[in-house]
Specification:
Layout lengths: L3 H4 L10 H8 L5 E5 L4 E3 L7 E7 L1 E7 L5 E8 L3 E2 L14 E4 L3 E7 H10 L1 H11 L1 H12 L4 H13 L5 E3 L4 H8 L3 H13 L3 E4 L2 E4 L2 H9 L2
Antiparallel strand pairs: 1-8, 2-7, 3-6, 3-8, 4-5, 4-7, 9-11, 10-11
Amino acid sequence: MIDYQLLTLCPVFSGISETEAEKLLKQIHFQIKKFSKDEVVVVAGERVTNLNIVISGSVRGEMIDYSGKTIKIEDVEAPKPLAAAFLFGQENKFPVTVTANEKCSILVIPVSEFLKLLQMNSQLLRNYLNSISRAQFLSQKLQFLSFKTIKGKVAYFLLQQAGDRFHSVELKNTQQQLANLFGVTRPSLARVFGEMQKDGLISISAKTVTFLNKKALNELISHA
């Protein structure tokens, strides 16, 4: 049984009435799968063949880091979708393993059926396109977790933001936002910025970071 009032709070169904949501789902094929606490919902690397929406309970996304340690990326509570931005394209695989935090239910809509929904309702199409940008944060966070050192993460971020042509970058994120993105504490990040300035790698004025030794920054990435 689907709680359509709750479903309309899902980002994909935002702005769609309960009646319209129920009408749309009646025109396609879908399943509702139930999972017990700590049961694996999907495994990292598994192909994304369905739009999965948590409609009761919550799940967690986890990955294994370079040392074999399990790292929790984020919790996903009802009514949120799982890896919605990975439905299409050649690399449409789950970036993390998803496990139930508690007893939960997942609305499973095959990609072919979801395409029908997108064609039937322009609001739903706009919602989906907007939700894709959320994957950018997750992809960045996964990339940063592949580096062993905070300096490596910082160097990668700064060089990525500046590109090949520029030798400075203006930080648009607060230090706390960057710390969250890198998966480190704010004091640890502040200490690393201080060390990188002391080592003559960068200089910081207000929110502008200038590269003093771009070659050394690249070396930090290659050895991270």
